[in-house]
Amino acid sequence: MATSLKIDDALKSRVQNLASQRRRSPHWIMLEAIQQYVEREEARENFKQEALASWAAYKETGRHLTGQEVRAWLNTWGTNDETAVTGCHK
């Protein structure tokens, strides 16, 4: 799919300078920037949807872990006393 992109002269110059420094084409720099932006925004949206689903599940069931329970579990990571996460409770 061919797409054109209009950018102002200042940004065009910045892209060209960066491309020259990185020994890449301006086209490559712009594609990389768009790809990284899209991936970051998709990850942000996925995180948001997971949070909303978790909130809905909590409202429906009331099952949860307290912050202290999570911290205690995380503090065991990488130690000889590493434990599995405890089960959720009401």
From TrEMBL:
A Pfam family matched in the record: RHH_1
InterPro entries: Arc_rbn_hlx_hlx (IPR013321), CopG (IPR002145), Ribbon_hlx_hlx (IPR010985)
Domain Ribbon-helix-helix protein CopG residues, every copy: 2-41
Highest taxon of source: Bacteria
Gene Ontology terms describing biological process: regulation of DNA-templated transcription
Protein name listed in UniProt: Putative transcriptional regulator
